[in-house]
Amino acid sequence: MTKNNKKAEIEKLNDEVDRLKKELKKRKKYGLVWEEKPEEVVEMCKEKLPVLKEVKNKEIIIDKDKPVNLLIEGDNYHALSVLNYTHAKKVDVIYIDPPYNTGNKDFIFNDRYVDREDAYRHSKWLAFMGKRLKLAKNLLKDTGVIFISIDDNEMAQLKLLMDHSDLFGENNFINIFVWNKKNVVQNDAKFASVNHEYVVAYARNISKLGSFNLLPRTDELNARYNNPDNDLRGPWTSVALQAKSGTESNIYEITFSSGVKWKPVPGTYPRLTKESLIKAYQEGRLWFGKSGNNVPRLKKYLSEVKKGVVSNSILLPQEVGSTQMAKELLKKILCKNIFETPKPLELIKKLIMLAAGENALVLDFMAGSGTTGHAVLDLNKEDSGSRQFILCTNNQDENGGHKICTDICYPRIKNVIFGYGNKEGLGGNIKYFKTDFVDYDEPTDKNKIKLTEQATEMLCVKEGTFEKVLPARRSNGAGGDQKNFKIFKNTNHYTGIIFDQGAIPAFKKAIKDIKGKFSVYVFSLGDETFDDEFKDIKQRVQLSPIPEAILRVYRRIFR
Description:
Blueprint: H1 3-26, H2 40-43, E1 48-54, E2 68-73, H3 76-86, E3 91-96, E4 108-109, E5 112-113, H4 121-139, E6 140-150, H5 155-163, E7 173-180, E8 196-203, H6 206-209, E9 215-216, H7 219-222, E10 236-240, E11 242-243, E12 254-255, E13 261-262, E14 269-270, H8 274-282, E15 286-287, E16 297-301, E17 308-309, E18 314-315, H9 317-320, H10 323-334, H11 345-355, E19 361-364, H12 371-383, E20 388-393, H13 404-418, E21 419-420, E22 423-424, E23 429-439, H14 445-453, H15 456-463, E24 467-468, E25 485-489, E26 494-498, H16 504-511, E27 518-523, E28 541-546, H17 548-558
Parallel strand pairs: 2-20, 2-23, 3-6, 3-19, 7-18, 19-20, 26-27, 27-28
Antiparallel strand pairs: 1-23, 4-5, 6-8, 7-8, 9-17, 10-16, 11-14, 12-13, 15-16, 21-22, 24-25, 25-26
Helix pairs in contact: 3-4, 3-15, 4-5, 11-12, 12-13
């Protein structure tokens, strides 16, 4: 190497060092860094696009006028990808119970269990979770909340991951609940009996959420209130007239007309001003004990307290159930013990009640044994609510070769709908789908046609219209063109899918006498909306081109 060449090479290296220094300065100085590991189920989406295919013989419809719940069998990355098109910003609550990455055959990455000795164990888990949480966030309403169960193996990593600005951000952190999952002490523990797990809660937009709902008051809480003096205002409890905080200028003494004297004990301050205390006395809101001569206390009436209670961050087994209770319940439902780590029904019910109302849409994309679906149905039975659930789970082997979706999750939901043992059925509707794929290595006309042909179930899921309107309208002149469009409905809405734009006139004739509004999807090789063709009925229809409406979402996800 000549002297000039060597000098040029050194300058080149120095330039590269300067470039790297500038690049490093741009990066955050605090945060979570991991080695990104490619995942096969993600990579395949570069050439195959996920769609949904219904398994018709697993459909359960008890009441056509009630909402339809969904169970999707398949990898949750693919299911979330489809839901990013069908349910963007529609979900109120997400609950997931992800693999805890214990190293004990609980976490599979690229079809292999990740063991404790794997040097990239945490990186693989973070890569796995990060991709799915990013898709999940897109599904939440602005007021939506996500709850994630976890233990100490990945708790620290999960918190930092969720705090990342690309995901939920630390400003949207709500709380970490600590769940005491068992009542017994494990005496053979090396250091301490680990009796807890966590439930991490984040909002999509905490400023839009406001606060959690109050939980119903329990009989135990109400029992603290009684009415020994037959006060017409009802049951009450009492509190001291002094508090530990206040100002010196507000300290006073008072002698009541009964002769009883009162002043705050040293180091405390009056809870009320002197005028307010006199008013309370005149209104009979002070309690001087049964003798009438005790130190007075202020009555606090049950009718005046909040109609509910704020949740404690410590979740106790007697309130939300334990691991053992969850296993026993599942065994009763399935008549066999085939799932080791179900979550308690009452735990999931409490989380749903905290974050949403009676019409909530609840998603669990790591559904496991189906506790979340059971919780939704149980809540609806209790308060006549109209909550819906979407469950997503794969169908990998559990104990003894049992498949999670077909042998555990679906049978559980089916049994609680119809009833099991001497337990009355909860009712409800469910449709069962599998993720499927359409080859789409490039945006050719052939591939667009292929995707459109396979998109029917996705569009029905998006619109919630599952009942097919039979093509028995040949008298209206539609004739053979009817094979080029389909119509579906629910109780108050219709969906039209037109596979050939030449069939638009026939479609319009078919819907002429149908009362109600339509979401209409028209096949287009480009991005045409066909507004002119529908301008005479534009008040009745909302138009979307397919497959472009789907491809826009998939381009954003899979780019």
